[in-house]
Specification:
This protein is α/β, with parallel strands linked by helices. It has 3 domains: 11-116 and 250-328, FAD/NAD(P)-binding domain; 119-246, FAD/NAD(P)-binding domain (3-Layer(bba) Sandwich); 401-719, Phosphoribosyl-aminoimidazole Synthetase, Chain A, domain 2, CATH 3.90.650.10. It contains 20 helices and 38 strands.
Length: 720
Amino acid sequence: MMQAPPLPRTRDLVLIGGGHTHALVLRKWGMAPLTGARLTVINPGPTAPYSGMLPGFVAGHYERDDLDIDLVRLARFAGARIIVGAAKGIDPDARLIHVPGRPPVAFDVASVDVGITSDMPNLPGFADHAIPAKPLGPFAARWNAFRDGSGSAHVAVIGGGVAGVELVLAMAHALRQRGRLAEAHLVDSAMVLSVIGPKAQSKLRKALADHGVTLHEGVQISRIEEDGLRLEDGTFLLSGFTTGAAGARPYDWLSDTGLQTHDGFLSVDQFLRTSDAQIFATGDCAHLTTSPRPKAGVYAVRQAPVLYHNLCATLSGHSLRPYKAQKDYLKLISMGDKEALGERFGTTLAGPLMWKWKDHIDQTFMNRFRDLPAMEAPDLPHPRTEDLEEVLGDKPMCGGCGSKVGRRTLRGALSPLRDGPRDDVETLPGDDAALLKTGSARQVISSDHLRALTDDPVVMTRVAAVHALGDVWAMGAKPQAALANVILPRLSPALQERTLSEIMQTATEVMHEAGAQIVGGHSSVGDEMTLGFTVTGLCDRDPITLAGAKLGDRLILTKPLGSGVIMAAEMAGLARGDWVSAALDQMTRAQGSASFCLSHASAMTDVTGFGLAGHLLGICEASGVAAELDMQALPLMEGALELALQGIRSSLFPENRRLLPDLPDGGILDLLFDPQTAGGLLAAIPPESAEETLSALRQAGHDATLIGEIVQGAPGLSLA
């Protein structure tokens, strides 16, 4: 029976923001995707914090990582592409979402779940001497450093709502546990806890007193200073750590969309639609016009199944489902120690049992994203060849350089092609490129392409362009021209145009920054996205090749290792999203200025599919020398070693490992054979200029490291 081709994607659904509702929609989508829809999520970072556990983290009951929903892993599960960036605008007429630093993102249907921001930075001195509780990343880093310091500690929280009370109780508890608490202040221009009932208010006021928190109610702050707060009546409150949990407001750009708003929040009907029927909104950034409710996570969570249904219905032409908001909900408020207060319908309970209930609810919610259901692969068809399972392996094929052909296989296929009829074409050592001679001009030419390792065409284009330019930079040449080679997955004509536009705009930007010009290209349709470039460069002297390394030369590497193992883990849902995001950032870093700093290298190559060991072996073989690596100096991407120790390997690892079977293996040693995508430059530098070169590279912004030297011996590697 003929195998059916993959079905095309025909419409774009874009989730703006990784809030609780959207996270749940992504999870649901992973289990039941809408056929024909291409799903995208846009978020400022690779993770989204769960604010319900923030007080527990501040108090020391949770680790920092416990709070994060990993959107990269969740997007992989959902089959969605993730764009790491903060949306700054929506054009409903043009159906475009504006994200700084990239072409606009087109949509057919969109949903907004970006939460709220704070007015705190508008207080005089706040931006310089205090920190808002959101975003969580900077707050957590500052709090950890302050909490773990020494000496007596003074803290202040601005805002006497539930969030402010939870924060100051948590801070007071954590500092008291360390014997450091001197003073804790809670400051508000109105009465503290005015939004909850008198019983709950009374219990929380007692908790504040028991924890040594001083209340300052009905007061105005004049300014924030380095060591405290100055009130308008002249009172000074000493504080070494000042934060704010007040002044919550919608993002300004929401009002600029032209969509109807209520006090700056996007107005939505009972179907969670804005005034534009193709744009939905949910969570704290939305105002439910039919039955207004306070900003609370419980409503966002309960909107998720309705939003999922209505997004699918809008894309497929079916009926929408109304959202019916509950009248009241159980409010669970942390009280510093492992105690909490619960209130609903005027009934109030407090103590350790309520904390256990709150912790159970929070952990149950987070476990929905930690323990994603395993999606079983379809059974292989019968009959089949007897070695099919062995060749297929036990994991999906990697993208990027992890899907390349191995060095030995490639050399065997290319070796008969080295000699040709033209004397103006010189194949350079390594089979990656050629030198073309036209009169006195010397031009290098190379070509490379990559199977996509991310579904974001903008990031993938940057990676592929930097990767293709690597050969030109490694030869000390200046990029000149480029042809794009694009294979798109099956898409509708509209989505093809959108995707090609993103790719070509990004490619043009990268090539222009490198000093090159896009002069054309070719495109086709296949099962998956593949991007590549044929590039040329001009040399004002003989190109730097693999040959030429001399005894005593120092080895410099301009990027850390680990992209292969990190992206292999990402495909399996085993890599942390921040590791993946950081790895992609490394892959998109151009090496033009590094090439300039290394222009006096004896030999140079870019580290790509064959891994550091394979490419260094290429230098040794071409130069007739050996190399010694300092394993303690080897630079690694965050998470690479941890994943290697778990036994995670890229598809190309076994083939790379066979190049040097005598070297020991395991742990960091295996990363020598990890295929790198858009990796760094590896250069042999004369010893007298190595330190100066290293300093110049670092001043140019490169994570360059001295990793070894060229030694005497038969071509090969040794470890120090």
